[in-house]
Write a structure and sequence with these properties.
Number of helices: 3
Number of strands: 6
Low-confidence stretches: none
Distance between the termini: 28 Å
CATH class: Alpha Beta
Shape: globular
Structural class: alpha+beta
Radius of gyration: 15 Å
Number of domains: 1
């Protein structure tokens, strides 16, 4: 059986979050050189998916109003970089909800859905 690509998992998680009315977006980060200038977009280590947990929560879960959500998506064999771990730690320290997910089931478990 073929393992899903990371992008397939990102898409499945975004659909799952939309189904539960949790606004979320896929963040594309990186850098490029344009006309001799080096341009970086996004923060180093930023999570693949960012969103906002609604103040009402869904299901049996209740969240603080507008709580920031960050999900780093990895394949089964993927590992977090130090920058990615640092980003997730900063979000959690500041009161947001941030975690690593390899599948939709992890997202459901982390969000109590």
């Amino acid at each position: 059986m073929k393992r899903p690509k990371e992008q397939d998992t990102v898409n499945a998680i975004l659909k799952f979050l939309a189904l539960h009315r949790i606004p979320a977006w896929h963040m594309r980060t990186g850098a490029t050189k344009i006309g001799g200038r080096f341009i970086r977009f996004g923060a180093v280590g930023m999570a693949d998916i960012i969103g906002v947990l609604p103040s009402t929560g869904v299901g049996r879960q209740r969240w603080a109003p507008g709580r920031f959500l960050a999900i780093e998506v990895k394949s089964a064999a993927g590992t977090l970089t130090a920058a990615q771990q640092g980003f997730l730690s900063q979000v959690n320290w500041a009161g947001g909800k941030a975690f690593l997910a390899r599948d939709v089931a992890t997202v459901a478990r982390e969000l109590g859905l």
